[in-house]
Specification:
The complex is a heterodimer of chains A (146) and B (359). By secondary structure, chain A is of the alpha/beta class. Chain A contains four helices and five strands, in the order βαββαβαβα. Chain A is 36% helix and 14% strand. In chain A, strands 2-1-3-4-5 form a five-stranded parallel beta sheet. In chain A, strand 3, helix 2 and strand 4 form a beta-alpha-beta unit. The radius of gyration of chain A is 15 Å and the shape is globular. Chain B has 359 residues and is of the alpha+beta class. In chain B, 47% of the residues lie in helices and 14% in strands. Chain B has twelve helices and eight strands. In chain B, helix 3 runs antiparallel to helix 4, helix 3 packs antiparallel against helix 11 and helix 4 runs antiparallel to helix 5. Chain B is globular, with a radius of gyration of 21 Å. The chains are: A alpha/beta (146), B alpha+beta (359). Chains A and B meet through helix 1 of A and helix 4 of B.
């Protein structure tokens, strides 16, 4: 697979149990080494291309997730990591959970698992990279037409 | 004339793996007051007990927090076992002890990594987490999961470890101990690390007592309290002493946690040497009726589980008091009068676990 750019990721913990957060960080560590694909974990949404969200959405973190998403430059890809981020998971029936991340922002890639394994997260990020390239091409095409 | 300003800190911040929001009231660069607002991770797990029966709730209890997931599951199970008067087999008690201490090692190594990241020592961060992978591999071999294990059940454990696995574990632990000695030299003796940690964020013994701090945060201020001494699981048969330091600054907290990792290696070795043969679970009959308080020493400090049953399969109430919640007043105290640049380190030295705190 051809990777044209080094995609930077930003990670936000929605309302997960920490399991997936730790696995996201873990996949960046020497053993799984997501950084070999040029991925850097950044804290600044304005530098990020890929948004990894773990955990479901509740009333209080919904504006936070939306704000981080809106601050990211185009093209951008959202990856929902873990079953809670996909649809609420085991916490679906909790009174304070609205559902998966797609209740707040559009999600491109879903990575299931409780907790999502680092291999699955790496796979999700690589799919996001491919999608990022596709979105970039589309943006270029649109710019030419206009 | 100093100028007062308010700096918002979080919920999304580069050094914070989890969302917590603080309003820092500053006078120039000095923090005068910190006002926390929490609730970003609130899910409402305690209410879920009305929808899941007392055996299904073990899985929910494990997901209170993904770092100490084993201990949350175990704390809940022990509380229900007390209510139902179930005596678990001795081998299950030893298995619980071994998995508990493995959780402590992995949690403390994770914390050491995050601390190194907070003061910008990237390679030390990577080294700590590389070492932590060995514990996760041990978890995967013995339970099948890396983060969430589901080996606890009411009445014992779901899985057993055979002699071959235990002897492999003690070999891995020997290797890890050797590697950790190398890493801990950097944490404890490196000039750059010391300049960020020493004399930062003092908490005196009196303050720690008054503000109700728990865990390594409290023990670093000189109070030798450890709930493992209360004697759950196989801890009554194990020889250990609470680890303390008299200094009470951030460096002391780092020192206490590193020494606790070495102590955990020792506890696992003792448990492997003493583990008896036999069953790992007993069948459980009937429904829980009555209430119980269970105190468990987690990596971050003492967690309290309250369980109340009413004779049906649905419990009336489950309540968890988590260690980070008890440590927050102490953290706010240490933040007063510190420099803005030290705030991330001071937040990290209590080892905050927000998803436990807010559930």
């Amino acid at each position: 697979m051809k990777i044209s750019k080094s995609p930077w990721i930003i990670h936000y913990d929605g309302s997960s149990c920490n399991g997936c957060d730790i696995e996201v960080l873990d996949s960046l560590m020497p053993k799984y080494d997501l950084e070999r694909f040029g991925v850097v974990n950044t804290g600044n949404p304005k530098h990020a291309d890929i948004f990894l969200v773990t955990g479901g959405i509740n009333a209080q973190n919904k504006p936070v997730v939306q704000q981080i998403y809106s601050q990211m430059p185009f093209p951008k890809v959202v990856v929902a990591v873990g079953i809670c981020a996909c649809n609420g998971g085991i916490f679906k029936e909790c009174y304070n959970i609205l559902g998966g991340v797609d209740k707040a922002i559009p999600v491109d890639i879903y990575v299931p698992g409780c907790a999502a394994r680092p291999e699955a997260i790496i796979d999700g990020v690589m799919k996001a990279v491919a999608l990022l390239d596709k979105k970039r091409e589309e943006m270029k095409k649109e710019a030419k037409e206009n | 004339m100093s100028v007062r300003s308010i700096v918002p800190f979080g919920p999304q911040h580069p050094v914070l793996p989890e969302p917590i929001h603080l309003d820092l009231v500053l006078e120039d660069e000095k923090v005068v007051e910190a006002v926390p607002s929490i609730g970003f991770v609130h899910r409402g797990l305690e209410k879920l007990v009305e929808k899941k029966d007392y055996q299904q709730y073990v899985y929910v209890a494990e997901r209170i927090c993904g770092i100490c997931s084993f201990m949350h599951g175990m704390g809940y199970c022990e509380a229900v076992e007390h209510v139902m008067n179930v005596e678990i087999p001795p081998r299950a008690k030893y298995l619980r002890t071994i998995w508990c201490e493995m959780s402590r090692i992995h949690s403390h190594l994770l914390w050491l990594g995050l601390l190194a990241d907070a003061f910008g020592f990237e390679s030390l961060f990577m080294q700590s987490w590389r070492l932590r992978e060995k514990i996760l591999d041990m978890f995967e071999v013995s339970t099948g999961g890396r983060v969430i294990f589901s080996v606890n059940m009411i009445g014992g454990q779901r899985r057993d470890m055979d002699a071959q696995m235990l002897s492999m574990f003690s070999k891995v632990l020997d290797d890890m101990e050797r590697e950790l000695r190398e890493i801990s030299k950097t944490f404890l003796n490196d000039y750059a690390v010391q300049s960020r940690l020493k004399d930062v964020g003092f908490l005196t013994k009196e303050q720690a007592h008054e503000l109700g701090a728990v865990g390594p945060f409290m023990r670093a201020s000189g109070i030798a309290l450890d709930s493992r001494k209360l004697g759950y699981a196989a801890y009554p048969d194990i020889d250990f002493e609470p680890i303390t330091s008299q200094v009470g600054d951030s460096y002391a907290r780092c020192d206490v946690r590193i020494r606790e990792i070495f102590q955990s290696f020792d506890i696992i070795r003792q448990a492997i040497a003493k583990i008896p043969e036999g069953e790992v679970a007993v069948p459980v009959k009937g429904m829980p009726s009555g209430e119980h308080f269970m105190r468990v020493e987690q990596p971050r400090g003492e967690a309290i589980y309250y369980v109340k049953g009413n004779g049906t399969k649905f419990l009336d109430r489950v309540r968890v008091r988590t260690p980070t919640f008890a440590n927050l007043p102490g953290m706010l105290e240490t933040l007063k009068g510190c420099q803005l640049a030290d705030v991330p380190i001071l937040i990290l030295t209590i080892d905050p676990c927000i998803s436990c705190t807010e559930r």
